[in-house]
């Protein structure tokens, strides 16, 4: 399988404090990778490094075997999209205007949408099923509706790789499943597509992710299929909880704190 992202020996510091330490991971085409771990483990920090929002203190990052430093920013933005958790929208924009922002990397001197732009936007709207939200102002939508609009904006870009930071946080079960299904469908749509998702819900991680990366205190302490990562020992040591687990059903139920 084609390696879309490769991270080697990544380290990141804030004021001389180590936030990420010796991170190594590879994401291949067709894969949904879940990044899990307790609060403060470094999950969102790692995602921002992978999204090129922050620069690592040291280490190497490659996108489709090309060093990040060698990829022009506009080209990078066409290939990789970052879905921020609860990203604020401070302007009273119509839903369709928000989605159209996803085509920004394809526009140069003219702000006018091309036929290709319009086709990509229409396809994204259909994919997320939000035709009924067109004409609404983004600030009037529920949190679940806003997340679907944000995902539509991402889909309109037509990226190969989507990085999503806790996209199911504060959503009802219906929208949690819908968002995860859409991200999974994107990853499986082509051999050069993938998704990396930061998650707190271990059940969703088990059900939708092909591989998990468990982080603790800025390090990757376990990686692989969910049954290999979410062992009783790991859950006790790193989450400090006891759980009931049924991996065939995708069920991880916390029972008590330790």
Shape descriptor reads globular
Could you give the distance between the termini? Answer: 40 Å
Largest sheet: 6 strands, mixed
Tally the helices: what do you get?
Answer: 9
In the predicted model, the low-confidence regions spanning at least 5 consecutive residues are none
CATH topology: Rossmann fold
Total number of distinct structural domains: 1
Structure, described:
The chain is 33% helix and 30% strand. With 258 residues, the chain is α/β, with parallel strands linked by helices. It has one domain (3-87, 159-257): P-loop containing nucleotide triphosphate hydrolases (Rossmann fold). The protein has a 6-stranded mixed β-sheet with strand order 6-7-8-3-9-10, with helices on both faces. A hairpin with a 2-residue loop joins strand 9 (211-216) and strand 10 (219-224). It is globular, with a radius of gyration of 19 Å. The mean pLDDT is 94.
